[in-house]
């Protein structure tokens, strides 16, 4: 099987598996327990993994919170901040996001709307990027949070998070970004980019499923940013998230971040070369094809392309035993893509659009084999 659906999930790295195995066998201690070696080993391993995640984005260790994944992180941050600032601090109730966010952000915003919050959904351009002027024009005295995706999960297009978050910082408005698709794939430095919160998952960077986290920036005076917890019942994760740590998954996540930091530059070069070949070959086979991803401001290896006259579901079924590609987000299967609608595609164009997303485990031979199969089923 040629796996070209790495925006959905990734193959777990053998180094990651190896790092996790002791914690599925002899190292089964609870890191919240005290005074004996098993617990101390577990605690030390959790904190070492926290360091690995922090180093990948250049944050402080105590700004990394482990969760079950990005969907939980998005829910936690949006619900927790809105609750704390509106109900506890009696501030505004206005949140800004975009029409092309991941569903875990959009559905959370809809949930908040039902509870009286005002939500502004920004438009995007033909590549899926938010316009800075539209954001600026949407900010009000009641705005408490802006949440904009860093790299779109269907298009691969990057938002200009540095300038967008700077605008919010200048107005003392908190800024969150879903960084699930960009973690470990582009350089992230939270010391130079003024985001207040980030969300991410391990399984997008060759780590295990069921683990992820969020970055929560410390305040100017070094104290915790107060957020209403999503899960109560314990003091784990700096009182942000109760529950026994999944040590083996946390260790796997830490190892995946360590590898991503070590290999990022090399992987970027390889993926850019492979995607250039893919795009050139697709254009040669389908001269009327349309690349929907931004060609420069994008996640390496992610290509969203419309193939006029080629039904995407029929194509995927024909390839299903040999090649894995996608019509878009794994969280929106069976529905016309709201992301593609938002960038102006018609319904007929949406149903002829595919997403190809590569990883470091893909090769030129696989790209050539995929192209040959496209030619054979024309």
Automatic annotation (TrEMBL):
It catalyses: (sulfur carrier)-H + L-cysteine = (sulfur carrier)-SH + L-alanine. It holds the Pfam family Aminotran_5. InterPro entries: Aminotrans_V_dom (IPR000192), Aminotrans_V_PyrdxlP_BS (IPR020578), Cysteine_dSase (IPR016454), PyrdxlP-dep_Trfase (IPR015424), PyrdxlP-dep_Trfase_major (IPR015421), PyrdxlP-dep_Trfase_small (IPR015422). Residues 2-370 form the Aminotransferase class V domain. The keyword Transferase applies. It is an enzyme of class 2 (transferase). It comes from the Bacteria. Its cofactor is pyridoxal 5'-phosphate. Its EC number is 2.8.1.7. Keywords: Iron, Iron-sulfur, Metal-binding, Pyridoxal phosphate, Transferase. GO terms for molecular function: cysteine desulfurase activity; iron-sulfur cluster binding; metal ion binding. This is cysteine desulfurase. It comes from Anaerobacterium chartisolvens.
